[in-house]
TrEMBL record:
One of its GO terms (biological process) is lipoprotein biosynthetic process. InterPro entries: Lgt. Its main location: membrane. It is a multi-pass membrane protein. It is found in: Cell inner membrane. The chain crosses the membrane at residues 20-37, 58-77, 97-114, 126-145, 175-192, 199-217, 229-257. One of its GO terms (cellular component) is plasma membrane. This is Phosphatidylglycerol--prolipoprotein diacylglyceryl transferase.
Amino acid sequence: MYPTHPFIDPVAISLGPLSIHWYGIMYLVGFAGFWWVGRIHARKPWSPVKPEQVGDMLFYGVIGIIVGGRLGYILFYNFDAWLADPAMLLRVWQGGMSFHGGLIGALVASWLYGRKVNARFFQITDFIAPLACIGLGTGRIGNWINGELWGKPTDLPWAMIFPAADMLPRHPSQLYQAALEGLALFTLLWLFSRHQRPVAAVSGLFLIGYGVFRFLVEFVRLPDAHIGYLAFGWLTMGQLLTLPMVLAGIVMMAWAYNRNKSATA
């Protein structure tokens, strides 16, 4: 007998006209985790920021993630619907955020904040990389609470029935992503960054790790219904967007270590 996903009201708190959604709460938990762990991370002697500056960095990042994530969702996944209803861009409370768009927004915010504190771009992104995984994990838990982004049918013992889809047992792919892109990737990057690494190496490892984990989970996660598979009967938009990430990560790590080797020599 497989467990059934419990119906959880997406609205956690309702105060008159104000509604606070679980998905938004998960974002807040991720941002709080960034701030708390970031202050610890900033104590390392090679940190580009001081602990008291993490709050300002977070503010820049929040704006970049929300704006970039929403624009990315529209451009990558729902462009036709936006053309028919341009106002949907502003209806963030209805859901719809793209990781890849959020990443671009976060990179722009990192560049702007780096200019403010006189730090190099990759110094900032190296600092942010492990902390970003906290929000990635909590965001996927938010997807699970909403009962969305479920996986393909399976007979594995940990399968779950999502009534919003049908009564078939399915991969709880949201939890796979929370475990891999959140917990596992955070642990990998936190351990890797415990010692000083060549500038851009941590950022490169983040791109590789996220890209590989996301690419693998996409094999058991159903693609967006209005997009479907792009090629070969299995390639999804998520996989297509992560391939350049993995390639860029490999190039960045090779460049970082070769540059460091040349400087040492």
